Amino acid sequence: MNNSVTNTARLLWAGLRALLVLTVVTGIVYPLVVTGIAQAAFHGNANGSEIKADGKVVGSSLIGQSYDLPLKKGQETADPDLRWFQGRPADGLGSNSVNTQYKLILSGATNLAADNKDLVQQVKDAKAAVVKDNSVPGYTVRPSQVPADAVTSSGSGLDPAISPAYAELQVHRVAAQNDVSVTQVARLVEDHTEGRTLGFIGEPRVNVLELNIALKELVAKH
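Request: output the structure for the sequence above.
Response:
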């Protein structure tokens, strides 16, 4: 009986020691080491890839934002603020979910098939809006010029970037809305166009938030 109690106590004490050691190693030492390495080697990424403007954090380079006008009385969907470059549509999980444009409660694609009537109509309506919004005196957008990312949402609905083609399509409208030259705005797009990651992964892209920050600085100089 005594041997049985002694053995049980010994096993419990060994288990408790193992629990304490593993807790310290995996719960304290390992997280601190990983955090330290991340802060030292990848400081920006470890802190959310923050983007700052005027000394304040205004967003993340990984998460898109909306650039809309304030909602008018009776409106359910805000109109885009045409002074700014616009990102991809963010229909995501649909209007009947708790997810709204670029909100992080939920994210995802529509999961609608390519021939779904609702999706086809959304794309048609989006293309018509892109053509209308970006056609200004002296520059008319043709439907054939509208790239796919201008009328479809990404898989997450949170894409922070657009294609160079979509950014270039918006140049004349942005220039007219802000009373700056087309050449200056086109240069901003060129300067903020990133190539493929490592030269072969993904596609060239333009981060919309970073581009709009540069646009704000350009307009402030005029």
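Confidence is low (pLDDT under 50) at residues 94-99.
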